Amino acid sequence: MEILAKARSSTESYLCQRTNDYDCVEKQIDQTFVHTCRKQRTTLIIKSNK
């Protein structure tokens, strides 16, 4: 499967690698990394504090 975004945890990596048609965006808000994966109308937001 194609890695569409650099994930900061294996959970994020797994969720984003489940399918190759995700539009993945990662941004940092304060100390929280928000990893958003969009597929069709579904938005998946994963927050991981580092």
TrEMBL record:
Going by the entry's taxonomy, the superkingdom of the source organism is recorded as Eukaryota
Protein name (database record): Uncharacterized protein
